[in-house]
Specification:
This protein is about 35% helix and about 20% strand. The protein is of the alpha+beta class and about 475 residues long. Strands 1-20-19-15-14-9-8 form a seven-stranded antiparallel sheet. A hairpin with a 4-residue loop joins strand 10 and strand 11.
């Protein structure tokens, strides 16, 4: 590693005595750190930081989307996973039959938001009142914040979608044009949504906000009902486990892509001739029989925190597909509606992931933990990388198992990206194709260092007498803060 990269790795690492926070948005990381300073735990920090990101990064995540979390409790030998993924609307299967399939975007793609139930479940373990944790995000919404470069980029990419689905205009395209990075933006409607979350919790969309969502979807031709919005659920489950060499590795369970991650790592470790991309391809193929969520770039974000009591919590939240979800915006609330139902289910009635009422769709969202065999998790992490969530997690965990223990170096190591069988393999400087695949016929594009849209994050399990450590990938503006 060059001196410049070593300095970069150190600069994106936070070390604290009381806690550490990692986030995709620097302001969110600082808000999470403030929650720790105010006497909160890792739960408080991720709730505060996650809610801040629903305002700071609306192309990627929001309260009308989904949430997956992973936690490690003090003294625990394994992590738990929280799945807050909205179930299929009751009429979705019939709509798929009538329309000859499930559209990826638009009103029929809108499902039941799972995030409110997820935040409510996390708040049950928090120390501070939810009103205190939501207040910084609400203040950002009302008082303004600088539009992030990644938001400007994603909005430009989604301009045609937003225009198509919002023919009367949308706050995210003022004057019909994307806002430039650095523009001071106010989203007071999201402040109202956050106030309602405090008072209604998991039933955020039961009442006036739900009426506004249903009205917006129905006017566009969708099938979402008030009864559908009463069904969100979130529950803690045991994480899936696999022994990979001499390390225990855990991942969030189905319907996330966590089991596919474990398969890829096992395939990679079982044969020294196997290369990472080849293992990813085979694992994805194994799970394709039940996964409908395709490998496409995703609109997703991630926050995490660790505290001196020994808690580690990671929270991944998403509007799905690849930006601005379904494309529908409830204008008076500036609320972006997710499209997980359209993207995550299979229209074929014979498919195991057909949208029967109450079924949760498949999702690329997943989180992981790993540690030397028998010692419990030592590192926890994830990446909101869309199609490359599983490939990037495979890369980082493989380096961890091979001996790299420095979180900053792990998140700044050269990366490759691959979005599917018909696309090109992108290689950052420092990687050769032989490091990645045995497929000599694959198309290759070489990229500068740190140029891919990776946003990996990693936290270390707190240990007595040692600093609490977290690191955030600098490629897309991630940040780590410590207390």
């Amino acid at each position: 590693m060059t001196r410049e990269l070593a300095l970069l790795a150190a600069g994106c690492t936070a070390l604290g005595a009381r806690g550490a926070v990692v986030a995709a948005a620097p302001i969110a990381a600082s808000i999470g750190a403030h929650a720790l300073r105010s006497g909160g735990s890792a739960y408080d920090a991720v709730i505060a930081a996650g809610l801040a990101e629903t305002v700071l990064l609306p192309p990627k995540c929001g309260l009308a989307g989904d949430l997956v979390a992973l936690r490690l409790r003090p003294g625990a030998g394994r992590p738990d996973a929280l799945l807050a993924i909205g179930a299929a609307p009751a009429a979705l299967a019939e709509a798929a039959r009538e329309h000859g399939g499930l559209p990826d975007v638009g009103p029929l793609s809108v499902g039941v938001p799972g995030a409110p139930a997820g935040y409510a479940a996390l708040a049950e373990s928090a120390t501070l009142p939810l009103a205190d944790l939501a207040a910084p995000a609400a203040a950002l919404a009302r008082e303004g914040f600088p539009w992030a470069p990644i938001c400007a980029e994603l909005t430009g990419e989604a301009q045609a979608l937003l225009v198509e689905q919002n023919p009367d205009g949308t706050p995210y395209l003022p004057g019909g044009r994307p806002m430039a990075a650095g523009t001071i933006v106010t989203l007071p409607g999201l402040g109202i949504v956050l106030e309602e979350l405090v008072s209604r919790g998991r039933e955020l969309f039961v009442g006036p906000l739900g009426d506004a969502v249903i009205d917006r979807v129905r006017r566009a031709g969708g099938i979402l009902t008030a009864e559908d919005l009463r069904t969100p659920a979130a529950r803690w489950q045991e994480a899936r486990h696999r022994l990979v060499g001499e390390w225990d590795v855990w991942a969030s369970p189905a319907p996330t892509h966590g089991p596919a991650l474990l398969d890829a790592l096992e395939l990679l470790h079982a044969n020294a001739d196997t290369r990472p991309l080849d293992a990813v391809r085979e694992a994805a193929g194994r799970h394709a029989r039940w996964l409908a969520d395709p490998l496409v770039p995703g609109g997703t974000s991630l926050v995490g925190a660790a505290d001196s009591a020994g808690n580690v919590v990671l929270l991944m939240h998403s509007n799905s597909y690849p930006r601005y979800g379904s494309g529908l915006v409830v204008d008076e609330l500036q609320l972006v509606l997710s499209n997980r139902a359209g993207r995550g289910f299979a229209a074929d009635p014979a498919h195991p992931n057909h949208p029967s009422p109450g079924r949760r769709p498949a999702t690329t969202l997943h989180l992981w933990a790993a540690g030397p065999q028998g010692t419990g998790p030592a590192f926890l992490g994830g990446t909101p990388g869309g199609a490359n969530q599983m490939p990037w997690n495979v890369q980082l965990i493989s380096q961890l198992l091979a001996g790299e223990r420095d979180p900053g170096r792990l998140v700044t190591a050269p990366r490759w990206a691959w979005d599917g069988p018909t696309t090109t393999l992108e290689l950052e400087l420092g990687l050769d194709v032989t490091d990645v695949t045995r497929d000599v016929g694959i198309n290759i594009e070489h990229r500068p260092s740190l140029s891919l849209r990776s946003t990996q994050q990693i936290l270390c399990r707190p240990l007595p007498g040692h600093p609490i450590v977290g690191a955030a990938d600098p490629r897309a503006g991630g940040s780590a803060a410590a207390v």
